[in-house]
Design brief:
Shape: globular
Order of helices and strands: EEEHEHEEEHEEEEHEEHH
Radius of gyration: 20 Å
Structural class: alpha/beta
Helix content: 10-25%
Strand order of the largest sheet: 5-4-1-6-11-8-12
Number of helices: 6
Number of strands: 13
Largest sheet: 7 strands, mixed
Length: about 240
Amino acid sequence: MSKRAVILAGGKGTRLRPYTIELPKPLVPIGDYPILEIIIRQLARHGFDHVTITVNHQADMIKTYFADGEKWNIKIDYSLEEKPLSTMGPLSLIDDLPNHFLVMNGDILTDIDYSAFYEDHVSANNMFTISSYVREHVNLYGVLESDENKKLIDFKEKPVTRFEVSMGIYMLSKNVMEHIPHNEPYGFDHLMLDLIKAEKNATVRPFDGYWLDIGRPDDYMVAIDEFEKNKGIFLKDA
């Protein structure tokens, strides 16, 4: 079965400056490869045969590097945003989407099984599936809890808060497109709220492997170290 993926690569990468002053974020290197090449190699290994990259900022550099995908034995084409369309808006410009397709950000380092994620979505006949991850945030301060009389009733030293967050990896069924306006900025947040309102709630699929969004300099440095130490879990053939 043919598997299609859409990779969102049109952002300016402002959070990752100064690394993105000269390079678009999908081309910043992780070890020997741009982060987007790692993703392309992973998708090809998991049986995806057609990838559409949505581009805007520094589009020509991305198109020159990846060309038609022959180097990785995968078909690559491009969808050009003439204005920023957020995360879901770019999908409205792609007119040949199949019944089921993967959508993801182009700046993610993970060892997720993309094929299993795809198959789970299709077999469950979901409209929208979100791959989720639990992140922990350590509060840097001791937290006081007082009553209405300003008497201390509890104290927690640097408590840890856990959040279930979107990994920026999604599976969509084509009928979700009826909720996405054509060529207008429209984000993941807008779509989730619209689906909830329409009682067509997305499905959340927790993931407990490795995941990191490299959008900030600190996380980018961590990703470089992790890739070098554990290259084999990200690229089996590297």
